[in-house]
Amino acid sequence: MYAQQVDTGAKRLKNLEEMSPEERHFQEKVDAEVRIEPKNWMPEGYRKTLIRQISQHAHSEIVGMLPEGNWLTRAPTLKRKLQLMAKIQDEAGHGLYLYSAMETLGADRDEEIEKLHRGEVKFSSIFTYPTLTWADMGAIGWLVDGAAIVNQVPLQRCSYGPYARAMIRVCKEESFHQRQGYEILLTMMREGTDEQKAMVQDAINRFWWPSLMMFGPSDANSPNSAQSMAWKIKRHGNDELRQRFLDQTVPQLEFLGCTAPDPDLKWNEETGHYDFGEIDWQEFFDVLKGHSPCGIERIQQRKSAIDEGRWVRDAAVAYARKQEQKAKSAA
Amino acid sequence: MADWTLYEVFVRSKHGLNHKHVGSVHAADAQMALENARELYTRRSEGVSLWVVPAEQITASAGDEKEPFFDPADDKVYRHASFYKLPPEVDQM
Q1: Which residue of A has its CA nearest to B65?
Q2: What domain of life (chain B) (predicted)?
Q3: What is the value of pTM for the model shown?
Q4: Domains in chain B: how many in total?
Q5: What pLDDT, on the 0 to 100 scale, is given for residue B67?
Q6: Is B70 a member of any domain?
Q7: Residue B83 is assigned to a structural domain of this protein
Q8: Domain with B12 in it: what CATH number?
Q9: pLDDT in tens, A213-235
Q10: Lowest-pLDDT range, A48-52, A124-128, A225-229, B28-32?
Q11: B8 lies in some domain
Q12: C-beta atoms of B39 and A100 within 8 A
């Protein structure tokens, strides 16, 4: 998920009898699928959890532009460059939709971005991996955006109105991302040299497991997951979504003529799903702790983008004031 | 963003339809808000017209539905066409 391991502050779920009248009224609304809007009463835990989840999600969209930006100047054709640029612009847009939704909860955008830069808030583990070849642009579009879609589709029915509505717009745009990614890989496999085909397989080998990790560890015993499910800001378990992604992805992998770096991956006639091997969760937790190939570099890039862009923002404010003055003196 | 105004954004998706709220943008002035809103909310021809309004200029009814603000409408069933029972011969009205 783009938001991983979001803390809800809950040790266990309260039942309706234990709740205050306001809390009970709130929970009954959520249970009845009535959307919660910014000015409605909500438990403090719900507000804080949503801010954590949405800010992490927004940061991931923004940081997610960096691994792709790495290839913008080296895209193989003008067409590919324009497509990649459009995709990256969409990611900026997704980040902004999400920051807007977060602000309706009373959170301050600058402050949340500061928290990211201080390492107090995370972004998705997937964007800490380097993009080494052009095939990585295909693998990211196909696998990473594919996994994001599986995660985000249920969030269109999230209990918090502004978040759900942002997700509807995001999901509409993601499908272009996934298809353009797959088309990059398909073109390389069909028309490429042996070296280029090997590049595709190598990109898949590197992004396969990190994509499966995006859904987060099994949440069978997590009080955070149970609380998020009760609040309907999470609608399916991590394992369920991971399986859904895998089941739809493996046939696409086979169509490409590539393989997964998982000897245990095979169709299970009985369950009607693909079985797969053990995920290396140590790698996932290491990445979250900051022990990752590009984690620190990504944050530094974000910081310098803000610092070096300051003069543009200052100029915009100065220009706006000047225009205001002009309008006044003309009147 | 703190020193930039928050603008709410409304898009008319097609000629003949009303403007609909889609989200918000921060901007240094209204013109910039329009341009930011165009880049953010109409990248795929989603609109033919845009409004941006400073969020602080909007006056809203109280948020919670328990609020009696809308009560006056609840006890006036005679405002609905279905209240008036007519014989089958003229019920197509």
Answers
A1: A40
A2: Bacteria
A3: 0.90
A4: 1
A5: 64
A6: no
A7: no
A8: 3.10.20.520
A9: 999 998 776 778 889 999 999 99
A10: A225-229
A11: yes
A12: no
